[in-house]
Amino acid sequence: MTDNPPSGIGRLEESGSGQPGVAASGRSGIGRLMRRPEFLAVAGARRKWVAPGLILQARRHDERQHPPASGPAVRFGLTASKKVGNAVARNRARRRLRAAAMELLAAHGTPGYDLVLIARSETLVRGYAELKADLAAGMKRLGAWRDGAVSS
RNA sequence: CCAGACGGCCGGAUGGUCGCCUUUCGCGGUGCGAGCCGUGGGGGGAGGAAAGUCCGGGCUCCACGGAAACACGGUGCCGGCUAACGGCCGGCGGGGGCGACCCCAGGGAUAGUGCCACAGAAAGCAAACCGCCCGCUGGUCCGGCCGAUAAAGAUCGAUGGCCGGCCACGGGUAAGGGUGAAAGGGUGCGGUAAGAGCGCACCGCGUCUCCGGUAACGGCGACGGCACGGUAAACCCCACCGGGAGCAAGAUCGAAUAGGGGCGGCACGGCUCCGGCUUCGGCCGGACCAGCGGGUUUCCGCGUCGUCGCCCGGGUAGGUCGCGCGAGGCGUCCGGUAACGGGCGUCCCAGAUGAAUGAUCAUCCCCCGUGACUUGGCGGGGACAGAACCCGGCUUACAGGCUGUCUGGCACU
Q1: C1' nearest to CA of A129: which nucleotide?
Q2: How many Å apart are A85 CA and B13 C1'?
Q3: Which residue has the higher pLDDT, A142 or A20?
Q4: In chain A, how many domains are there?
Q5: Which bases of strand B have any atom within 7 Å of the beta carbon of a protein residue?
Q6: CATH number of A105's domain
Q7: What's the pTM?
Q8: How far is the C-alpha of A97 from the C-alpha of A109, rounded, in Å?
Q9: Is A131 inside any structural domain?
Q10: Are A12 and A66 in contact (CB under 8 A)?
Q11: Cα A132 vs. chain centroid, distance in angstroms?
């Protein structure tokens, strides 16, 4: 649909270099991972952080994984398996993780990363502040943390 | 007031901050345009079970001559309601409860076949283990009495008679005992050798007439005389219902890549020969020579691949539709005991797809604990559970609460 002749396929080597390009790209939105291959790609990166409230997986964009050039800079996905509980419990865990992720990624998300948040049974009862702290620690550990909270 | 029976309803509330899905209306930018991007406002956004996926439908595709039949599956008192149902309502029959009320897989056992364990004499066609009764039957048996053989007494033995017992045999009986879930009706009186529907009364059962009821069924009466045991949730018979699969149904658009077909351009040797077709322009197939590539000659391969552009068709990822105006909600009136039906008014009210409907904070409400001792404080908790095409039911789960009708008690007037 959007593939116009001009840009065509010249594409995206640029994103490899990254950081300065962020401002250049102009798009700093937060996107969601929707498809199974995207989740598998993040899991395949083998960069994982386990916290009481959640498990965090991260993956940098690179040449082979080609997010749409015009797409959001940071993307995340949510997973809650049956170990968490019944459907009500899974939904609640997902929603809490999503709320925390939206809050932190807007301020501290490093462009060029895909993150996957996996719910645990502890996700349901952990305090919200602690949950955010778990996520922040994981992001720092995996290098997806950005300090200056200057979003446009 | 206490205890209980049956229904109906709710299923945390309010407010900040930050967000999501959908719909609609503006503004700005961009584009020829459909639209896209940004931004702002309004509307809507999980359940009574959304669950289990157990029935019944709508809808879609497949199959099929309308259909019928067999097999298989389901349902099963009667009447009504409903689009339909295994659902609901109202009755009937049976069982339970002082009662309100509750429970019931409730067609057919003279259509047929099978089965009835253990126990017991015997389990379906009648029979008889113990017992009771009768006997012009029998006994080397026991007791009593009489009389004789030998005159009296005693004892023993033989023989005969009478009575009784016991045993056997023959017959009568099914009252009683005993076994069992069930034993050929039950209770009472009469009757009898003992007994027995043998006779009688009542109950039960069966048949018939009449009456009430749409019907299931109920009632009165007469007759029969025990003949028809139970099990159909064993097969079976009868009546009725059912074509199959399911929104991952189905429809539609369709990228990249690979591949198929067609047209055109570029490129592309022959006054040669043979065969076929011809609209006589040529076209197709083959041979030969020339050519190109490899290679030292012989020789081998190519001889049209290619390339560019456009079009057609299949199909994958993916997108869109299906998809919410409906057996719809609410209110009211009318008919009906009710389920339900009808009229009028009014409303538009979730549509996600790694899946929106939320996160967080505060206050209040309700429980529990604690220290306190009657404001308040501190800590913890608030069920079952998340739409996935839709609708009608059933079943199962559920903290707490509100409310109506009725029943049985107690107290008071």
Answers
A1: B360
A2: 28
A3: A142
A4: 1
A5: 18-19, 46, 50, 354-361, 385-387
A6: 3.30.230.10
A7: 0.66
A8: 15
A9: yes
A10: yes
A11: 14
